Amino acid sequence: MKFNLTVNGRTAVVEAEPLEPLSTVLRDRLGLRGLKEGCCEGECGACTVLLDGAPVHACLTPGFQAEGRDITTIEGLGDGPGLLSGIQRAFVEVGAVQCGYCTPGMVMAAEGLLRANPDPDDAEIRHALAGNICRCTGYDSIVRAIATEAASRNRVSA
Amino acid sequence: MNMLTVARPRSLDAISALMSDGRPLHFIAGGTDMLIAGRLRPKDGILVDLGQVAELSGISVVGQHIRIGAATTVARLAEDPVLAARLPALSQAAAECGAVQIRNRATIGGNIAEAAPAADLLPPLWVADARLEIRDHDGSRLVAIADYIASPGRLITAILLPDPDPAPKSGFAKLGSRRELTISKLNLAMLMRQEGGRIVDLRIVAGAIGPRPQRLKLAEAALGGRFLSPKALQLFAKALSDEVDTAIPTRSSRVWKRRAIVGLGYDVIAAMTGHSPRHPLFAGAA
Ligand SMILES: Cc1cc2nc3c(=O)[nH]c(=O)nc-3n(C[C@H](O)[C@H](O)[C@H](O)COP(=O)(O)OP(=O)(O)OC[C@H]3O[C@@H](n4cnc5c(N)ncnc54)[C@H](O)[C@@H]3O)c2cc1C
Ligand code: FES
Ligand code: FES
Question: Which residues in chain A are classed under CATH 3.10.20.30?
Answer without folding.
Answer: 2-76
